[in-house]
Amino acid sequence: MFEDTHNEHVLLTPGPTPIHPRAQKALMRGMLGHMDPEVFALNREIQADLRVMYGTEPEAFTALLAGTGSLGMEAGFANLVEKGDEVLVCANGSFGRRMAEMAARYGAKVRLVTAPLGEAINPQDVADHIDGVAMVAVVHGETSTGVLNPVPEIAELVRRSGALFTVDAVTTAGMEPFKMQDWGVDYAYTGAQKCLSAPPGLAPIAVSERAFARFDSRRSPTPLWYCDFGGLKDYWIDHTYHHTVPVNLHYAFHAALQAALEEGLENRQRRVRLMGRVITRTLEFYGFSHYVRKEADRLPTVLALRLPEGFDDAGVRQALRKREISVTGGLGPTAGVIWRLGLMGESAHPEPYRKLMAALQDLMGEPGLLARYEEVLVEEAVQKPSLLSV
Asked: Would you state the pLDDT for residue 234?
């Protein structure tokens, strides 16, 4: 029988994240029709706030897709790629590989630029393979390995080539400043349940004017009707019916996004980095270490830590789950090798990780672990205590 323990559970995964209290409250608002004037007014505010979050040009098209981040990924290829187009995909983990698979399914001729697991894409490799491609696609924060790819450097290469540039911002947008216009990104997407701590089920997207012009010049209809940019524009701009949007998820997302912007994206960036240092310094003392060797390549929002020698990964995570604490192990080749600790949105605060350290102290027989955490927390937060009081 299902038992409701959501008020007690400590969710420290790479997604979903704990729902922001304001989003939780908004989720309980009474239902309105998806064509109601109040919903259209709410949607306009969401669109404006998304332009701020993504750092778009003033007239960029923004919207919420009724699906998770993977739908955001698929919609980009469905609308902006046609059969026979050359697409360069940067793949250094599971989600880069997913991009390549989706592009191929929509008829693209895929070129891969790869990097070993735990390493960022080398922009020079992109430069060596970019000639003649219609699109370049990259995952900004590769969730599967905790790697931050050098999107600004890759963007400069793409800008000079004339190709469209698609960026998966699933573990960065809303927690890291994202400069879509300045960098020259044409299409970006994330998932509501990641850095913004809204419920799963929405994929916030942003489409540049240049990308929309490419869409308008398609030789064939978009093969994915549900997320056809033209149909989406009909609903979000012209307010004509396309499909029924999940209104209550819009309420919750609006509240979570406003909370993030009120906190400030740069403050959130500083907060996640501070918490990352605290957790790493605490666990390093007990044999955990960074999986990603180069500091510049580490994704702040998904802390990938190599497990100590002889550590019982599955056993400890199972024991933690019995104590209502969820952490995530490696994916594919990194299973049993790393933990991936979520530091997005509401999980990037001291209290959730205080509970983790207390549980690990007991399970590992390390009596000083919690005290070590508190000590490091004070040291790191002394300059900016306000970052951890949001």
From this structure: 97
Q: What is the pLDDT of residues 102-153, one digit of tens each?
A: 999 999 999 999 999 999 999 999 999 999 999 999 999 999 999 999 999 9
Determine how β-strand 328-329 pairs with β-strand 338-342: antiparallel
Q: Sheet harboring 164-168: ordered strands across?
A: 61-65, 203-207, 187-189, 164-168, 135-139, 86-91, 109-114
Residue 288 pLDDT greater than 50, yes or no: yes
Structure tokens at 13: 């995964």
Tokens of 247: 């209104």
Residue 201 C-beta-side C-alpha neighbours within 13 Å? 13
Would you give the distance in Å from CA 72 to the centre of its chain? 11
Q: How many CB atoms lie within 10 A of CB 133?
A: 23
- pLDDT exceeds 70 at position 292: yes
My answer on whether omega of the bond before 16 falls inside 30° of 0, hence cis, is yes
Strand 86-91 to 289-290 pairing: unpaired
pLDDT given at position 2 = 46
From CA 186, how far away is CA 208, in angstroms rounded? Answer: 5
Beta bridge partners of 80: none
In angstroms, the CA 76 to CA 139 distance is 13
Output the pLDDT for position 386: 62
Q: How far is CA 314 from the centre of its chain?
A: 25
**How far is 128 from 144, CA to CA, in rounded Å?**
26
350: part of which helix (H) or strand (E)? helix 350-364
CA 280/CA 109 separation, integer angstroms:
41
| Non-local CB neighbours of 78 within 8 Å, separated by 6+ positions | 106, 222, 223, 224, 227, 228
Dump pLDDT digits (tens) for 323-362: 999 999 999 899 999 999 999 999 999 999 999 999 999 9
Model pLDDT, residue 8: 79
Residue 28 in tokens: 């309980």
- DSSP letter string, 363-380: HHT-TTHHHHHHHHHHHH
Compute the distance between CA of residue 216 and CA of residue 235 in angstroms, rounded to an integer.
17
Q: Is 290 helix (H, G, I), strand (E, B) or coil?
A: strand
